[in-house]
Amino acid sequence: MDVRSAVGSNNYYVLFKLYNEQSPSLHAKKLVETFLNRSRCIALRIITRAPNVTLEFLRLQLGFGDIHEAGQFLDAHEIPIVSSLPQLQSPQLPTLDPLDYIDCKLAYPIAYTACSKFDKVDIKGQIV
């Protein structure tokens, strides 16, 4: 019931909180996983209206387990990550720092077009 109300009201914070809780029911976790990618895209569009957003903030808001999962999500949607520190290591092994950020002025149009696939609704009201 909580999942339905969180998805219906686009309350991504509650949805990811329900996903990360240790639920006794695996069915609830599987149900949330069906809405996870769509909700993360919608949340990313909302979050990128801010000036700059750190990876740690994205990790917390979008319900990722660690920084690398958040980085993979951003890479999949081709959103550039700006390093907060100069790279001291070799370029073959890029590391993500929680203080790395995304420049939302550049990221918002990319996030909007990358997540526009969830805007299509068919005649039955289902998201295509």
TrEMBL record:
The lineage of its organism: Eukaryota, Fungi, Fungi incertae sedis, Zoopagomycota, Kickxellomycotina. Gene3D superfamilies: 1.25.40.990. This is Uncharacterized protein.
